[in-house]
Structures are given as structure tokens and as C-alpha cells.
Design a protein that fits this description.
The chain has 199 residues and is of the alpha/beta class. The chain is built from seven helices and nine strands, in the order E-E-E-H-H-H-E-E-E-H-E-H-H-E-H-E. The protein has a five-stranded parallel β-sheet. A four-stranded antiparallel β-sheet has the order 1-2-5-6. It is globular, with a radius of gyration of 16 Å.
Length: 199
């Protein structure tokens, strides 16, 4: 059953935010994982809908498409490049859109055992920021079957405008690993951080 995205008020005054279904085909080589869609994204039903977020600008430059393309066209460009997109959290309580506001004890992670088992050509998981990587390592990785725990992962600098400590050119250079891996170029990372990625 398809999960309906939603933002529901919680008793604590925070909100139970429910994320999206993945953008993915079975032949994907790279999986990009965020933490949980922000409020603007949830309202518009689109990954990285906030204009200040550099995600689509970076992927557009790496894959040679206009980041202002219609959302459906941008999704098709990712799929054609064998890149999948999802979030670590299926839902969680959060006030606002910042990753730092996600309440760890309320996180329900997505079903990665099922997802990864169906995508055996996957060679790299790229985390969009340290929060996504940390949540995956703590709440997903320990429960995965042994054969799925060895998929290499790399923590990339967050594309969020809140991560202003690194300029765009540097972020773009580090994010190039996504398209390199998607094109079949070997990578030697195993759940490590890119140099100067946000911690």
C-alpha cells in the first residue's frame, strides 16, 4: 500500500512528518539518502522543493539538465542515470524543517532490507548530510542482513542552505562521486565521510 505523505500535529506540539516513496528502479547503482523531507517538500509532494536547497542544482549540473525542469522530468533524469532517491526516516516527530529538530526516539525508518534486497546492482549509498548517515548507521545498518551491510557508503555535504560552511563549488566537486558511481566507476568507500562533509 502506498504511504500517504502527511504532516500531523503531535501531542508535544511537534509534528509527525511522513516521508515519500522512493524514486527508484531495480537497476539503480547509486542510492542517495536524505533524512526526512522538509515542510516545503511535504507540502508540495516533491523531494528538495525548497529553492534554496542546492540538491537539484547540483544533480542538474552533474547530469547536464536544467534544475528548473518539471519535477517529473527531473525524476526521469535520475532514473535514466541509474540513481535512486529516498530518505532514511519513513516518519518522525519534528518541529520545522531542520534535521537537528528530528526527535530520534520517534523515528520510524524505511524498510531498507526489502528495498536493498530488490536492487542487487546497487554499489554505493550517498548520504545527503551527516544526520542521514548517522541515523542509517544507528537505526538501519544493525538490523540489515549481513549481505546488505557491506554496501559502501559515503557521507556528502548537505545540500541544505543551512549548511553554509562550504561553498557551492566544493559541494559540487564532492557530489561528483554520485555520477561516477552511477556510470560504473569503482569506489572504495565503506560508510565513510567525504573530506570536510558536515559532521
Amino acid at each position: 500500500m502506498r504511504r500517504t505523505r502527511s504532516i500531523r500535529a503531535a501531542a508535544s506540539g511537534q509534528q509527525r512528518c511522513v516521508g515519500f516513496e522512493p524514486i527508484a528502479k531495480r537497476n539503480c547503482r547509486v542510492l542517495i539518502l536524505g533524512s526526512l523531507p522538509g515542510i516545503r517538500s511535504l507540502e508540495q509532494g516533491q523531494y528538495y522543493a525548497l529553492p534554496q536547497n542546492a540538491f537539484w542544482r547540483i544533480l542538474g549540473e552533474l547530469l547536464d539538465f536544467d534544475p528548473d525542469l518539471a519535477y517529473g522530468a527531473r525524476k526521469r533524469r535520475l532514473l535514466a542515470a541509474r540513481i535512486a532517491l529516498w530518505d532514511v526516516c519513513g516518519s518522525a516527530h519534528r518541529l520545522g524543517s531542520l534535521d537537528s529538530s528530528i526527535q530520534s526516539g520517534t523515528i520510524i525508518v524505511n524498510d531498507f532490507a526489502k528495498f536493498l534486497s530488490a536492487r542487487r546492482q546497487l554499489t554505493l549509498i550517498c548520504f545527503n548530510g551527516a544526520k542521514a548517515a548517522d541515523t542509517y548507521r544507528r537505526k538501519v545498518l544493525p538490523d540489515l542482513p549481513n549481505d546488505l551491510q557491506g554496501i559502501p557508503g559515503v557521507t556528502l555535504p548537505s545540500t541544505s542552505s543551512a549548511h553554509a560552511g562550504m561553498n557551492y563549488a566544493r559541494k559540487l566537486a564532492l557530489w561528483a562521486i554520485v555520477t561516477q558511481a552511477a556510470a560504473g566507476m569503482g569506489v572504495g568507500h565503506r560508510c565513510q565521510s567525504s573530506p570536510n562533509a558536515d559532521q
